[in-house]
Amino acid sequence: MENHEEKVEDLTNESTESEAVETEEVVTEETVLTKEQELEQQVAELNDKVYRLSAEISNIQKRNAKERQDAAKYRSQSLAQNLLSVLDNIERALQIEVEGEQAEGLKKGIEMVYEGFQHALNEEGIEVIDALNQPFDPTKHHAVQAIPAEEGQEADMVVQEFQKGYILKDRVLRPAMVIVSQ
Question: Among residues 36, 91, 124, 141, which one has the fewest Cβ atoms lying within 10 Å of its Cβ?
């Protein structure tokens, strides 16, 4: 009987050992699958980061290109803004009535300078805002006074211009200072 018990015990040990080996193989396979899944997840996360960074770089490049285009388009803006007061003074000088040959010659010289300024501004795309007898536009006009509309005159129309306004391409450099009818 002892032999039989030993054999049963041996068989039991062998079956436990084979179960342990099978369990170990299953655990190893699950571990391999889990590691594969982790690696696949990491790859997916890294791919997502690459796509996002690529899109961000593309957006930065587009934004930089737009900024360069705007800088080139509006390169003369600050210079023009500084020269507008000089142009205003030249216009005031031209409004003065003069007498005498020397004064007329001086005024003619000022007119030539004024025309040169106007030509240079036009070459850069800077134009005068046409305000007089136009509908009031708060993006282009700065109303300094409102007066009652006269008979036959529409409301919200520019009736007088104190100071010219200027526009560079599609950007207002200085709004026109105007009086508006109401």
Answer: 36
The pLDDT of residue 6 is above 70: no
The whole-angstrom separation of Cα 99 and Cα 107 is 10
pLDDT at 22 over 70: no
C-alpha closest to that of 133 among 99, 158, 105: 158
Alpha-carbon span 175 to 151, nearest angstrom: 28
Nearest CA-CA partner of 114 in 140, 78, 84: 84
What does the alpha-carbon distance between residue 124 and residue 76 come to, in Å, rounded to a whole number? Answer: 7
Pick the CATH number of 77-181 from 3.20.20.70, 3.30.365.10, 2.30.22.10, 2.60.120.280: 2.30.22.10
Mean pLDDT throughout 93-97?
90
Strands 176-181, 141-147: pairing is parallel
